[in-house]
TrEMBL record:
It catalyses: (6S)-5-methyl-5,6,7,8-tetrahydrofolate + NAD(+) = (6R)-5,10-methylene-5,6,7,8-tetrahydrofolate + NADH + H(+). Belongs to the methylenetetrahydrofolate reductase family. Its EC number is 1.5.1.54. It is an enzyme of class 1 (oxidoreductase). The lineage of its organism: Bacteria, Pseudomonadati, Bacteroidota, Flavobacteriia, Flavobacteriales. This is Methylenetetrahydrofolate reductase. The keyword Lipid metabolism does not apply. NCBIfam families: fadh2. The gene is metF. The keyword Metal-binding does not apply. Keywords: Amino-acid biosynthesis, FAD, Flavoprotein, Methionine biosynthesis, NAD, Oxidoreductase. Its cofactor is FAD. GO terms for biological process: methionine biosynthetic process; tetrahydrofolate interconversion. One of its GO terms (molecular function) is methylenetetrahydrofolate reductase (NADH) activity. It comes from Flavobacterium cyanobacteriorum. It comes from the Bacteria.
Length: 318
């Protein structure tokens, strides 16, 4: 079922959903099931699976020269989605990127998803590869998520890249896109970011999932600005419970989001990471309660492969 249908069927009740990432290459799928199993009691109608593009590594050869190697450290997004749908009978949502994909690759990827009975995708640009500062599309690829949304929306109308194809079958994907309550790191302003977010919706996206935030006011202000600009689709808040002291620096650096001072000080004063985990859970429960009271469509948790803290939060809310 489509995410938008799940939201409609919930009749205003806030849903529980979460995002997982594929295991590192060499691990098996059991680690994924082990992280999902404890969360199934909260009846997620959909589970997102992130996509990880290739990275470049440089290996020093015996002659001192460097060899460039292309590696994909977390493959398996499509296989995991299919396994989730089979095992749990819930909708699995693969993330799909512009980065690393030509238009042809994208089309073929979408055909695989369609054949597997996957009905939702989250369309993203992706970040620059680690060895580069700015995002660079493939030669025949998309520059921005909005273009990727258009390609998926075209396929939903039976429009393939090759116009010679006749009697084509239309896909039926519900398309989600990313939104940033504290603006995307490259956007010159929040207003310009929302301008391009609106274009993604115009091109065919049907719902938005936000970047994580730790101050609900940022989300409420963002939603108000989006509504003012005429964006009417559901805006699903993304939440993450902090679980280590290191994340105080890692999260702002990696995701360009602010942490409120009260949360920072509680983490700083925590005596060890067990205590930090408890602070993170309590903060996330308080955020979740306020968001449910505001009638958000779903609470979407970034699990990063660790389910105990999400289980503790969900147990207090659902
Ligand atoms: P876009 O919407 O293309 O925006 C990128 C930047 O370009 C923004 O600053 C925007 O304002 C600007 N912009 C957009 N359109 C235009 C235009 N037409 N002209 C000029 N400027 C424009 N990354 C992964 O690698 N894998 C994942 O699975 C993944 N999942 C994510 C899930 C969520 C919910 C979120 C919030 C992020 C996720 N990311 C993931 C990270 C995401 O790929 C990065 O944040 C990336 O840098 C931007 O992706 P986007 O789809 O928001 O890009």
């Amino acid at each position: 079922m489509k995410v938008t249908e799940h939201i409609t069927n919930a009749n205003g009740k806030t849903l529980f959903s979460f995002e997982i990432l594929p295991p590192l290459k060499g691990q098996n799928i059991q680690s994924i099931f082990d992280s999902i199993d404890p969360l199934m009691e909260f009846k997620p109608p959909f589970i997102d699976v992130t996509y990880h593009r290739e990275e470049y590594e440089y290996k020093e050869l015996p002659n001192g020269l460097l060899e460039k190697k292309v590696v994909k450290k977390r493959p398996g997004t499509v296989g995991i989605c299919s396994a989730i749908q089979n095992r749990y009978q819930v909708d699995a949502i693969p993330h799909i990127l512009c980065g690393g994909f030509t238009r042809e690759d994208t089309e073929n990827f979408l055909i695989d998803l369609d054949f597997l009975g996957i009905q939702n995708v989250v369309a993203l640009r992706g970040d620059a590869v680690k060895s580069e500062i700015y995002f660079k599309p493939e030669k025949e690829g998309h520059h921005f998520a909005g273009e990727l949304v258009t390609q998926i929306a075209n396929l939903n109308k039976g429009i393939y890249l090759d116009d010679d194809l006749q009697n084509t079958s239309a896909t039926n994907f519900c398309i989600g896109v990313a939104g940033y309550p504290e603006k995307h790191m490259e956007a010159p302003s929040l207003d310009s970011d929302i301008y391009f977010l609106k274009q993604k919706i115009k091109n065919g996206a049907e719902y938005i999932v936000t970047q994580m935030f730790f101050d609900n006011k940022k989300y409420f202000d963002f939603v108000a600005k989006c509504r003012k600009e005429g964006i009417t689709v559901p805006i699903i808040p993304g939440l993450k419970p902090i679980s280590t002291k290191k994340q105080l620096n890692q999260i702002p650096h990696r995701f360009k989001v602010d942490l409120p001072d009260d949360l920072i000080m509680a983490v700083v004063k925590a005596k060890d990471n067990d205590a930090v985990r408890q602070v993170g859970i309590e903060w996330c429960i308080a955020q979740s309660k306020e968001l449910v009271a505001a009638g958000v469509p779903s609470l979407h948790y970034y699990s990063m492969g660790k389910s105990e803290n999400i289980k503790a939060v969900a147990g207090a809310i659902f």
